[in-house]
Amino acid sequence: MTDRLIRITTAAAVAAVAAVAAVAAVAAVAAVISHRHAYELVSTHGETGVTARLVPFTVDGLILAATMLILDANRRNRPVPPRARWCLAAGILATTGANLADGLGHGPRWCAGQRLASPGAGRLI
Predict the structure, then answer these.
(1) Which residues contact 41 (CB under 8 A, 6 or more apart)?
(2) How far, CA to CA in Å, does 63 sit from each of 11, 19, 44, 124?
(3) From CA 70, how far away is CA 78, in angstroms rounded?
(4) Residue 88, pLDDT above cutoff 90
(5) pLDDT tens per residue across span 14-34
(6) How confident is the model at residue 1 (pLDDT cuts 50, 70, 90)?
């Protein structure tokens, strides 16, 4: 029974580490892409240098701070401060808006539509 318990807990631990690593990898990729979009948006509107590089972190910092406040309140079995919810919502709206604004500047990208509308589409050669 002890050997079986060890195998089961080891497998569970390995699965948990793999899941955390996968989530961390996805989060890292999303953070890099989000930062790039926000940087491009800010630099397009005239900011340069350190300011252009740091402005995207203000939105991410707002989301991080609000998330930590909500997590702390939940762990202490206390009500979540309303400002934490508002800050989280504002951060999500800001980062979504920055990503959309940057993307809209590049025009629509309809992969299937571009392929169908391309010259020669539908010809069998």
Answers:
(1) 98, 101, 102, 105
(2) 34, 23, 23, 52
(3) 9
(4) yes
(5) 777 777 788 888 888 888 888
(6) low
Q: What is the DSSP string of the chain?
A: -HHHHHHHHHHHHHHHHHHHHHHHHHHHHHHHHHHHHHHHHHHHTT--HHHHHHHHHHHHHHHHHHHHHHHHHHHTT-PPPHHHHHHHHHHHHHHHHHHHHHHHTT----HHHHHHHSTTTT---
Tokens of 32: 């890099």
The span from the CA of 55 to the CA of 43, in Å, is: 10
Give residue 18's identity as a one-letter amino acid code.
A
For residues 39 and 61, what is the distance between their CA atoms, to the nearest angstrom? Answer: 15
| 36 touches 103 (CB < 8 A) | no
> Which residue type occupies 106?
H
Which ranges of 76-121 would DSSP assign to H, the alpha helix? 82-104, 111-117
b/e string for 57-81 if b means 16 or more Cβ within 10 A? eebbebbeebeebbeeeeeeeeeee
